[in-house]
Amino acid sequence: MIIVRTPLRVSFFGGGTDHPAWFTRPEPGAVLSTTIDKYVYVQLRRLPGVFDFNYRIAWGMLEEVRSVRDIQHPVVRCILEHYNRSDETGYEIIYNADLPSRTGLGSSSAFTVALLHAWFGNHGRLCARPFLAREAIHVEQQLLGETVGSQDQIAAAYGGLNRIDFGSDGTFSVAPLLVPQGRREALQASLMLFFTGFSRSAQEVEKRKIAHYDERVSELRSLYEMVGEGERILLNPHRPLSEFGDLLHEAWCAKRSLDKSVSNSVIDEAYAAARAAGARGGKLLGAGGGGFLMMYVPLECQDAVREALRNLTYVPFRMEREGSSVVLYNPELASNYLAAEARVS
Fold this sequence. Notes:
The chain is α+β, with helices and mostly antiparallel strands. 37% of the residues lie in helices and 23% in strands. The strands form 2 sheets. Strands 1, 2, 3, 4, 5, 6, 7, 12 and 13 form a 9-stranded mixed β-sheet that branches. Strands 9-10-8-11 form a 4-stranded antiparallel β-sheet. The two termini are 18 Å apart.
């Protein structure tokens, strides 16, 4: 048995420039993001051949099927079809998460990374972070053909507060931001996360945004430039952190212009209420359309902002540094019925 824990992420700047449709033009693409102490968990183990099914997949539903092609979860089906040896059968995969999916925290890609990590780990293969990120991008963009960017897979695999740059050839580089601990704590203390109650399909929002790329070149270039500015604010101890919040507001205004589906009237009203209560800026996380609203709020204004957004669920969080990690690995727990070295066929 193997259990993998993979973090969710909060993206500050650059969203939209991490999509191949943008950075392969070529145009410069980069994001500034951090992973947080909210995780997805994937448990994987071999099953003995004593059931009337070969695969048990537990996620939002319970699947018990004989054939991989009958698995409904697209990522699980894809990974088992692509990476499974023809003589292998019999797996149980259980998914759990600290927060709901489809809420702008990169949970879909975190699951892909976690399952790949568990799969290769179960086969005794150590996975470097670049490998996990590249394989997850390959699964989602090439094998599944999803209209998604490339930042979430990298963030989930690497962990931490990073600047991620995207090359026109599909390569990427990850530069951790070495922010002094006191300044990092001050940033963290100023960030508040609220659940709007809306979930959305990131793919559909991304498709609509990509359709307008030709008309939004200047806005996307501006979003890219904000990555560098956000980095400079964090790394310069002489600049007030409140400038980071102001830049978030500027970025949110620019992102809303990419497509009307990025926001809606309820979210706009909540954002305006938070600003009126003292928040410097913020954004709806992920592709947009629903999910979690993150706000930068000075400490002295946080009670007022929580009151202004009392109809939304407040979710405290902390930044994390680990990325995807194995929390349990015990080959002897392959099943309760078989020796660890036994093969199920």
